[in-house]
Amino acid sequence: QVQLVESGGGLVQPGGSLRLSCAASGSIFSIYAMGWYRQAPGKLRDLVATIHSGGSTNYADSVKGRFAISRDNAKNTVYLQMNSLKPEDTAVYYCYNSDYDPHWGQGTQVTVSS
User: Fold this and answer.
1) Rounded to whole angstroms, how far apart are CA atoms 59 and 53?
2) Which residues in the chain land under pLDDT 50?
């Protein structure tokens, strides 16, 4: 059984920064794609950013230039550095992996508010 353990969420003021981490543990050989999605109250779960094992990345337009995704393949860990946070970034952030069940972590709350 594979587990995705997220950390790093919390409350931050507008303009602040947070760093999310997600570690995949269990019987893992390799993971092609890892990433982050988010879901705000009353909305669908949307892509934030993904990163493939070779390093290629993809970002939602709303976070380009503010968020940066990275990964440590040896540790099966993905990170999301979030800068210049806005109230509209408030959501539950879910870690994702493309290869193993469960594909989703349990989520970590990010709240941007003064």
Assistant:
1) 16
2) none
Helix (H, G, I), strand (E, B) or coil at 1: coil
61 burial class (0-12, 13-18, 19+ CB within 10 angstroms)? exposed
Name the burial class of residue 63, with classes exposed (0-12), middle (13-18) and buried (19+) by CB atoms within 10 angstroms of its CB: buried
- The position carrying tokens 């709303």 is 62
Using an 8 Å Cβ cutoff, are 100 and 3 in contact?
no
pLDDT tens track for 68-100? 999 999 999 999 999 999 999 999 999 999 999
> Is residue 78 within 8 Å of 10, Cβ to Cβ?
no
pLDDT at residue number 31: 87
CA of residue 27 relative to chain centroid, distance: 21
